[in-house]
Amino acid sequence: MKKFKFRLQSLLDIREKLELEQKNKLAKAASEYQKAFKEQQDSVDFVNTQRQKIFAEQEKTGVVSMDDLRYLDKLQSQNSIFAASLNEEIEQKRLAMEAERVKYIKARQEKQAVENLKKKALEKHKIERLRYENYEMDEISKHFTPDKFD
How far apart are the first and last CA of the chain? Predict the structure, then answer.
């Protein structure tokens, strides 16, 4: 009996390649999203650090200079503007990541469908091989069993 050969193997190979490409695109989109999110968090952390430094200085001296307060106010207003623009960017990157995730899931499902066909074909091949082996064993046994009616 012939060795098992899946006739749609080239299609399965293509689907596997497409799934891998889509997985890489999803990873890239997720990385960009995380990068933008971290940039926003770093900005907030910087303002908080500066605020803590100013108030720590106030506790030491008991006085806060107007320059420090102006600097803190300027930082907070710039951070608000920056955060608003980053929020838009983060949302766009989140949407792009979600779109890539949907494409990846579709590619994975398409590959899985072909893999399921391969499994079914392999099972069918195994059953046919067993039938063929049983047939051959029956044929061999016919030639080696003595006739009872001689």
Answer: 35
